[in-house]
Amino acid sequence: MSRTAQLEAGTTATGKIYCANCKNCKLVPSAVGDDTRYVLRVRCAAGKWRKRLGDEKLYKYFTVIRRSMDECDAYEPMGDENEFLQELKRSLPINDEVYG
Ligand code: SF4
Fold first, then answer.
1. CA 83 to CA 48: how far, in whole Å?
2. Ligand 1 probe mutation, 72, 76, 78, 85, most atoms within 8 A of CB
3. Are 23 and 48 in contact (CB under 8 A)?
């Protein structure tokens, strides 16, 4: 399948979509404790990540590389997937760090 056809079908060469490589995957700070410190979370700006009862689901930033979809009609790739994911793996924290 050509890259264009893959994008139209909402799939990639690996048959998997990595949310980390999508424009809709947004990094957001989430306050903890007395609001002077925060942790990092990721959200899907297209509203595709939902809990069972319909509320929005956020994920811990350090797990973003594991977020994938078999297909997604709102996938907006940011560039070369392999290159991007390799760079991201190098820079991601290894656990849920607190900042501030
Ligand atoms: S739009 Fe789809 S591919 Fe993009 S972050 Fe949301 S669920 Fe993942």
1. 25
2. 72
3. no
H-helix segments, the chain: 3-9, 81-91
Atom of ligand 1 nearest to the CA of 74: 1
Element (H, E) at 37: strand 37-44
Q: Number of H helices and number of E strands within the chain?
A: 2, 6
pLDDT of residue 1: 44
pTM: 0.84
Separation of alpha carbons 19 and 84, rounded Å: 11
